Amino acid sequence: MNLLSTKPVSVLLACVLSMMPAAASANTLERVRASNTLTLGYLPDFAPFSSHLGDKASGYAIDLCLKIADKVKAELGLPSLQVRFEAIKVAEEVSAVSSGKVDIFCTPTPANLERRKTVSFSVPVYTAGLSAVVHKDSPETLLKVLNGEVAHDGPTWRATVNRGLTRQTLAVPAGGVTEQWIREQMRLLGVIATLVTVRSNDEGIKLVAEGKADAFFSDRIVLKNHIAKDYPDGNLMVLDRIYEYAPASMMVERGDEDFRLLVDTVLSDMYRSGEIEQAYAKYLGGASDTAKKLFDVYALP
Asked: So which residues are the signal peptide here (predicted)?
């Protein structure tokens, strides 16, 4: 005789299932339809990619996101869909996407394995180039080391780097791939220097301008934009050297392939139509021959 009736078994099963983690049910488009709102996240201090513009935002990445918004309106049949801009703090981009605070994070962000545990990435929309801003009167030894030259005559080894960087203060944005890269290089080269983290590019550049940091590392185009706008006196300069290149993408919710497909379709169409090249010309000073070749690589067929 079966001592467990069907009803108790069903109740027990329901209790067990209720205690299990909910299966992934990411569906950005359903959430957008229900709220009649698409929320675009961005860094407000990352011109020319994204910056404040009154109660909205502007920049290269914002223009691309607005094209995606148009596609969402058409896909959902919601011509009156509200598009809302949400400024996000540095180092909070991933949590803003994973928590559903924003539906897409527009500011180009390099993907890494740690971030991919939590969010997904679109096709690349830009190739980031890590560089540094320094004071024009920086010591020659520092400039040589940062430019990849030998700081002193004689044998070149790890201590040669330290002779250019020792007792220097280097600044980086907090919590991003730049901080990770700098820390790893300092470890590998045995660099003896002080590393400080900042909340924004404005803050990092200001440290260099005030002599509180000897170099600030960030994307080269972002640095050049800030220097031209905020420090036209010529006391600061951006190095020509590019330390690292990294494809940068928009972040979307992990596991939502329908929404990522929509985003990638829009971006790929923009690559093929030449719209992204026009956006490069408008915000980034034009696309180099190398960038144009990458357009063909990044666009999905």
From this structure: 1-26
4, 95, 169, 218 from 136: Cα distances, Å: 82, 38, 16, 17
> How many domains is the chain built from?
2
**Would residue 262 count as lying in a domain?**
yes
Question: Could you give the CA distance from residue 229 to residue 222 in angstroms, rounded to a whole number?
Answer: 11
Tokens of 267: 């971006």
3-class secondary-structure state, position 125: coil
- Is residue 230 in some structural domain? yes
Q: Is the peptide bond before 21 cis (omega within 30 degrees of 0)?
A: no
- List of residues 6+ apart from 223 with CB closer than 8 A: 131, 132, 133, 201, 205, 216, 238
Residue 12 exposure: Cα atoms within 13 Å on the Cβ side: 6
Token digits for 75?
């896909």
Residues 121 and 261 in one domain: yes
CB–CB of 209/232 below 8 Å? no
- Helices 289-298 and 257-273, axial angle in degrees (round to 10): 140
**Residue 154's pLDDT band (cuts 50, 70, 90):** very low
Secondary structure of residue 237 in the 3-state scheme: strand
Listed residue (57, 192, 222) closest to 126, CA to CA: 222
Distance of CA 170 to the CA centre of its chain: 20
Q: Is residue 186 part of a domain?
A: yes
Which tens digit of pLDDT belongs to each residue from 26-38? 699 999 999 999 9
Residue type, 77: G
Q: Hunting for tokens 């067990």 — which residue is that?
A: 16
Domain that holds residue 117: 28-128+248-290
Residue 4 domain flag: no
Predicted TM-score of the model (pTM): 0.81
